[in-house]
Amino acid sequence: MYILGISAFFHDSAACLLKYDEVIAAAQEERFTRIKNDESFPVQAITWCLEFAGIRLSEVDHVVFYEKPFLKFERLLETHLAFAPRGLNAFLKSLPVWLKDKLFIKRSINDQLHQIDPLWKKDNAILFADHHQSHAASAFFPSPFHDSVILTVDGVGEWNTTTVCRGTGNHIELLREIRFPHSLGLFYAAFTAYLGFKVNSDEYKVMGLAAYGEPRYTALIYQHLIDVKADGSFLMNMDYFNYCTGLTMTSKKFHRLFNADPRKPEENISQFHQDIACSVQKVTEEIMLLLSKDLYRQYPSDNLCLAGGVALNCVINTEILRHSGFKQIWIQPAAGDAGGALGAAYAVYHQYLGNARIVTGKEDKMKNALLGPLYTEKEVKQALDDQHLSWIKPDNLHNEVARCLAAGKVVGYFNGRMEFGPRALGCRSILADPRNPEMQAILNQKIKFRETFRPFAPAIMEEFVSDYFTAARRSPYMLFVSQTKTNTMPAVTHIDGSARLQTVNAVDHPDFYKLIHAFYQLTGCPLVVNTSFNVMNEPVVCSPQDAIRCFNQTNMDVLAIEGILVYK
Fold first, then answer.
1. Rounded to whole angstroms, what are the CA distances from 200 to 57, 156, 185, 189, 312?
2. What is the pLDDT of residues 67-117, one digit of tens each?
3. pLDDT by residue (tens digit) across 372-383?
4. pTM over 0.85
5. Where are the alpha helices (DSSP H) in 364-470?
6. What is the CATH number for 31?
7. Are 346 and 129 contacting, i.e. CB atoms less than 8 angstroms apart?
8. How many domains in the chain?
9. Which domain CATH number covers 518?
10. Which domain holds residue 550?
């Protein structure tokens, strides 16, 4: 049995293919089109998933979309009626798009699928999952837990912005919800836009910037913008937000409250902007912690699963882990809308079809998120030859890469299957020596071409994590932070002494472990800098051609690609 899950038409379009309950393949459309956060129908992602599985689309048993468009259109209509006559221009601008495309998604999906495989009949049934059901399923069903509380928090799906569910076996039960327009994800996104960053893309920049500021505006935020109850539920004062009726996130009243207009993207970042980032991060942390503490009291369980875009905030995740009461937390590594494709497929398999769920209690089903395309040595050599690049095939790639890193070189590392989700985990990564105090600036300014305040992550051999980090835990998906114990790794230490670490072991990620181990044997340092193989505003590289292009256009020193080395 094959189930194809699809997410599309908002941001982070993706496709996922299940064979029974095994994730065979999953990828975001942006990796193929090279359009960051691509929202278009994931034709190339679907095509690749099918090719990887060696099947035709007509052999797929069920196709499922990750949300319900009619309910979303209902929200659009009711929201504009509630705020009328405000927002008429925004409504008139969005209505034709809905009437032409989004409202008739079923027909559009079938037409697109028929183009992929003419044997796919245009009137074949398409299933639709609820948006937050897809998030909850993506968090619980691949998790190692038999039972768990499930918290999903994002901008908005159809109506829900926050849901609490209980997962047991193959069943998920909705317990509580918070509905639009009151949304913690949109609250954070509004500040993201106010700070001059891109919504649904740059929220992690706000998280990184927050460490440079002081929470000077938290009282003002609580007093005017958001009313938070003891259980973490909240109501937003919509006078300050414009996303219900306008084409912007914040209103003029919001700008007057902070006595400043929104920052333009090209403007310098001031202490005010740093303090705003710190304040919204602090308030969001406190709300999420209230929510999770109340869930632990009301629905006693050792386990918590998280999904939705807010679950990618690793600082918040760490606070929940430390202070909520839950002993174990599992977070979907593709927690945003891309993961909705996977969750929708799992919802069909377990909830719609009623298939049993086998849980080991130890391992999740995400295969270290290494679910994307891989390429052969022959394909790599052809791509290198096409660009007239000289290359060598060393006897021991890992030892040679370790020597390059120890010599201060920056290495683009491309090996095996591409990661699913926003994090590079050692297959599409840029690597460097964490001991070099100048490396953070080198990577930001000469390789990634991005803001100087952005931190980098350490990838560390799992057995050494407690030697270098406080309150450390297993973190294969780079979704928690920890304070550093030593000043010997300045390139991966944020200004507040924290690091967003990735733990690597020989069983789950053998190739990357061998590389770090080779660096450890050479230097005595069991970790490397790991950042995504891309430059700012571009998706992570997917193909050898993408990697070569990025290598040529940056000041990277070495390209290590499927066992082959290219020196610049």
1. 31, 11, 9, 7, 12
2. 998 787 777 777 766 666 565 566 656 666 655 566 678 888 999 999 999
3. 999 999 999 999
4. yes
5. 377-386, 397-406, 439-442, 465-468
6. 3.30.420
7. no
8. 2
9. 3.90.870.20
10. 377-567
